[in-house]
Each structure stands twice: as C-alpha cells, then as structure tokens.
C-alpha cells in the first residue's frame, strides 16, 4: 500500500526518486501489473520519447493496468511523457496513448523559435483562484520537449476542460498542466525545477488522498498570446572532470584546453589543476542558482566509460543533491571493454541516464558521424550513430552535441578552400600575427588534440539533421581566456540550426553574459573558470542580466 512510482525502463527517473527521498517520502517502484492494485497513489515520471514509453508499457503488460488504475479514481500524477500518455495520440509515435484527454500531442512549430523547447518557463493557471496544486504563477519550471498539446478551445473543447495551466512558447500557447478528478499532470519536470519544483511535489503528496478525487472541469478560455514568452535565458556552470596524477577525480580547468599547471619540473609536466571535488561543486552551484549543470569527463576517450565507475558514482551522487538538469559528456560512443565486451553508445548513455543524468553530450563521435553524413551527400543518417540511437530511444532533447572548434586564419584575398562562404571578418581580435585576416572554424576531436576537415557550420548542420536536441559551442581559442564569448561563432551556429544553442568559452565577467544575450539569439550561456575561482558569482550574472531587461530565473 502507499505511493508507487512507475518506471517504464528508459530515461532519468532517478531524479524523481531523489526528490522524494530529499522530501522524506517513501515509495515503491511498480514492478508488475498487480502493483497497481496495491498503490494508493501513483507518480509516472515519464522521460524520453512517447513511442518508446508506450512500447515499453505494452511489452511489460502495464498499459491496460495503468489505464484501469487511473479510471479507478486513485490519485495519479504524470510528469512530461507521464502527462502526454494521457492524451489520444502523438505525432511523434505510431502507437496510441491512453485516450483519457481527447486531443493529440503535436510537434512545436519551429518557424519562429528553437525546437525543442528547453529551459525555464512560467505556467499560468487557467483559474488563478482555484486549487493551484502547488503551481506558482511567480515561479519558473523546467521544460524539455519537442511535442506539446496546444491550447485550442475551438477544436478540442472537451479536452480543454482538463487544462490546469498553460505556457507560452514563441506565439504558441500549450498545456503545461492538466487536472481533473483524480488526475494531475505536468509537461514540465518538477523534479528538475529547483526549489519551486520540490515544493510542488510536496504539495501534491501532502494533500490527503481523498482530496485528489474532486478536481472539477476547467472553464474554456480565449487565450491571446502575449507579445513575448517568458522563457528565461539559462546560465550553466560547467565542470570539466578528470583524474589527477594521484588518481582522484577532480574538477579541473584548462587554458585553451591545457589543464596542467605551467610549473614543470625536470621529471614531470605540471600537475593537473585541481579546482575542487565534482559533487561538492555541483551542490554549491545548485544552491547558487545555476539553471543547469554540466559534467564533462574530459579524458574519457582513453577509457571505456562503463568501466569508469567513479564517473557514474559522481553522477549518482550529484543527482542526489542537484534538482536542476544535469548534462553528462565524455565518451558517449560505441566502445569495447578491456575484456572484449562491446558496449553501444546507447548503453553508455543509458547508464548515465539511470544514474541521474538528464542529457548526454557527444563530442568527438559527432564529428566522425558528420564526416560520414557529408560523404553520403547529407542524406539522412543510417540510424546507427550515437546521436540517432539515443535520440530515438530517449528523445532528441536528451542529446547535446559539444563542439570544440578552433579558428583557422586565412588571407581572404588568396583563400581558395571550401569554406569561403563561412569566412568571418571579425571586427576586433585575433592574435597579433593574424591581424587583418579572416577565419573559419575547424572542428577537433579528443579534447582538441586532433583537428578534422569539418567546419563548425557543417557539424552544426549535420547534427541537426541527425536529430541532436541542442548544441554546446565551445571555442579552444577562447577557453579560459576571460575575453568574452565569440559572438561571431555563436551567431554563425545560430543561423545554421533551429535547435537551441549554448554559448561557451571565454566568459570573464557578468557583462560578457549581457553581451552574448543582447547580441546573439542564443538560448543559454556556460562558464567554468570564473565560477570555479569565484571571480564572478552566478547571482551577479543574473543581476546584470536583469538590469539589462534580460529574463532570468531567480
Ligand atoms: O569527445 O565525446 O569524449 O567528449 C569530450 C568532452 O570533453 C567534450 O565535451 C569536450 O569539450 C570536453 N573536453 C575535452 N578536453 C577538454 C579540455 O579542456 N582539455 N573540456 C574538454 C572542454 C570546455 C568547456 C569549458 C568552456 C568554458 N571544456 O566546457 O568549460 O570552455 O570555460 P571558461 O568559462 O573557463 O572559458 P567526447
């Protein structure tokens, strides 16, 4: 008897479990159809792709028992896909949903905005005076999805009686929470929405079970979109993690990717810079208001990631104390263990998701895949790459591509290479000996150790075709320099793709964040060194953005 959680076997459901533990609730996982009879309340933290979710529920014999559980009138709380399965269908999938809310889930219109919708947005209650279910109009909640149920009272009046709150993205108003009778569901992830999300989960669980059965139908509204949506710009703290010379995992930080101290002795290179312990720093950045955290295993190309238990342990421990999204990068690719066992990129990613990661970030492997895609004439991928397999199972929003480009300076008058259309004639900088030259951006692999004949524009175009959900744009020339983000690079990538982009490398002051959000349409900005060395606080960055009328989460 009691609270049960439904896990259909894919995606990060650990974060909800961690939230419940943090809030002091006990729960049991649904293991078999009979468990639905024992449950007195149920949370379904659906993560990933609609098709995969329904397929897993069906194959484990849970689809019909779930429907019966909901129809029995016992309290149900669905999160993200756990809310979407209540609907009739999704254009993402061939399989049907539970059909409880009679309208379809469809793709966002990408003509006026980046898709997926990733980040912190507000939720407006349909009836503000009604029971809020813990949804606060003044709070921001974390969304990550490409598909949504549109608020459409003309076409689907019956379905709209389920609507509890709506959210605006671009000029679209979609359903961000549903509630009727015993059912509650959120499109956003409360378990990833910081303190506001934990408060919402707590509010639902505190309510006596009997009080969950009476939510009335919602009135229909004529909702007119506001001139702009409330999606905030995201500030991401990044931790580059590797083993130091003593074998301990530490957060390090490079200058143009060189993470060793400059002091070199006769017998050894400088030591690996140690800026702290990954889990302690992650907890600190969560408390400090980071909107997202990124942990990059920067030497994973040397090892088999599934043998790299310390990194999985770091992710597990970080997910226990961090309730904002966590991206894990490094070594997401097909590998072979030392004993010859083959591990697919999908397996590696799955291990990180189960440990508590929300997104995985793919670096070197993305470059090799785009090389193959270009050789095939930019047709669709063959479905076997890490990007495609992970996006298919977990949804494209779970796949970040991390690009590590370098500038290549050329004399524009004599340059005859293939990247003439991509040449940048920067206003300001470039090293002394390259002044007056133009440049293009060349991709690298293995943490900048090897350059490849792929430009950043080709890479961005390729990974968008393959199904990546977001691009993290580093720049080796700027990494650790404090000179500011390379706005030319960020604009170049933004012009190439429709998916969200994260600017990275070079942040040296709060003003640099203002610059990147004012002068480019980028969705998020990431920094490492200035946060690790406490030169600039996350709160100071957000204050500067607020002073410049740039929307951020408190
Ligand atoms: O190739 O899939 O195994 O992934 C490896 C990952 O590790 C990639 O995401 C790659 O960017 C990262 N990586 C590899 N070597 C290094 C290194 O520094 N030697 N770190 C490295 C990259 C760059 C940024 C950094 C920003 C901001 N780190 O993430 O955090 O430049 O720094 P700043 O604010 O101090 O300027 P794979």
TrEMBL record:
Pathway: Amino-acid biosynthesis; L-histidine biosynthesis; L-histidine from 5-phospho-alpha-D-ribose 1-diphosphate: step 5/9
Signal peptide positions on this chain: none
InterPro entries, per database record: Aldolase_TIM, Class_I_gatase-like, GATASE, His_biosynth, HisF, IGPS_HisA/HisF, IGPS_HisHF, Imidazole-glycPsynth_HisH
CDD domains found in the cross-reference section: GATase1_IGP_Synthase, HisF
Pfam families: GATase, His_biosynth
Enzyme active site: 80, 189, 191, 240, 404
Residues annotated to bind L-glutamine: 80
Keywords of the record: Amino-acid biosynthesis, Glutamine amidotransferase, Histidine biosynthesis, Hydrolase, Lyase, Multifunctional enzyme
GO biological process: L-histidine biosynthetic process
E.C. designation(s): 3.5.1.2
Function recorded in the entry: IGPS catalyzes the conversion of PRFAR and glutamine to IGP, AICAR and glutamate. The glutaminase domain produces the ammonia necessary for the cyclase domain to produce IGP and AICAR from PRFAR. The ammonia is channeled to the active site of the cyclase domain.
Name recorded for this polypeptide: Imidazole glycerol phosphate synthase hisHF
Organism of origin: Candolleomyces aberdarensis
